Amino acid sequence: MRDLIVVLMGGLSGERKISFLSGKACSKALRKKKYKVKELDAKGYFVDKLRKLKPKIVFNALHGKYGEDGLVQSILESLKIPYTHSGIFASSLAMDKELSRLIFKKNNIKVPKYFLLQKDYEGNFKKKIKGKKIKFPIVIKPINEGSSLGVYICKNKIEFSKNYSKLKKTYDRILVEEYIPGKEIQAAVMGNKSLGAIELIPKRKFYDYKAKYSSKAKTKHIMPASLSQKKYKEVLFLAKKAHKVLGCKGITRSDFRFFNNKFYLLEINTQPGMTKLSLVPEIAHYYGLKFEDLVVWMIKDASSQR
Ligand SMILES: Nc1ncnc2c1ncn2[C@@H]1O[C@H](COP(=O)(O)OP(=O)(O)OP(=O)(O)O)[C@@H](O)[C@H]1O
Ligand SMILES: [Mg+2]
Hints:
The chain is α+β, with helices and mostly antiparallel strands. The chain is built from 11 helices and 12 strands. A 5-stranded antiparallel β-sheet has the order 10-9-8-11-12. A 4-stranded antiparallel β-sheet has the order 4-7-5-6, with helices on one face. Strands 2-1-3 form a 3-stranded parallel β-sheet, with helices on both faces. It binds adenosine-5'-triphosphate and magnesium ion (MG).
């Protein structure tokens, strides 16, 4: 038996359910590789439990708020337990879709045109988007969610008002952005290298929660993405650049839209889904890296002061 690995999962975010799927798939893989594994729900007094368990490494399988935004990372730093994925600073930057975009733009990575609405906004919205040169349809979304939770495509002012009032109840800061038609391309980075890029063709209106997690939604996965060799290389380069400029570690997945021969980066995920059906494992599998070996790589890559 090797040293104890604690797989942190669940937690307090809207992605709690998905995190259990990621966490359980990873602990199963680690057990298969003969690691001693304990699963721990990052809820309630989990820090006490973690301290008592004295793990050699924490595999962070959390998604979303607290698990992906630097909070759990700072707890692990203060406990001096090595952990997987990005460190405190990169995690918080990546989780904030506005802050990360400022850095992407500065580094010549194209993002959709967007602006931020505070929840108490009551001005003339039509005038506002015109001023920003954005036309309907638009996309509105919380600044720090995942799994497409709270993402709405709005065809007109009426749809915007309806969905914005829903979002306002839960979120303080809301992004308003231009809708980018075209292809949905997501690219994985592993350490210092880009792994590959996959294309998603949802049967639903867009790549929403159901299209992501329900096999019944029948989203088509095209691996490798149907791009020219040149464009495939370009998206891998952009994903690696996004990973690097935010100072990410371990595995990340960058989500793009590809339209008029240009890539628009929507966001980078520092704790991408790790269920057996998730995209990073699918990309890795295509390049001959088994799920178990991907998880073991992440354990070996774990460290403190990330
Ligand atoms: N500006 C846009 N133009 C077109 N489609 C968009 C846009 N923004 C979001 N979408 C659609 O909504 C999906 C989710 O958006 P986004 O990646 O920003 O949300 P998320 O909740 O952070 O997702 P994740 O599950 O990757 O964490 C995208 O994959 C895309 O299909
Ligand atoms: Mg996304």
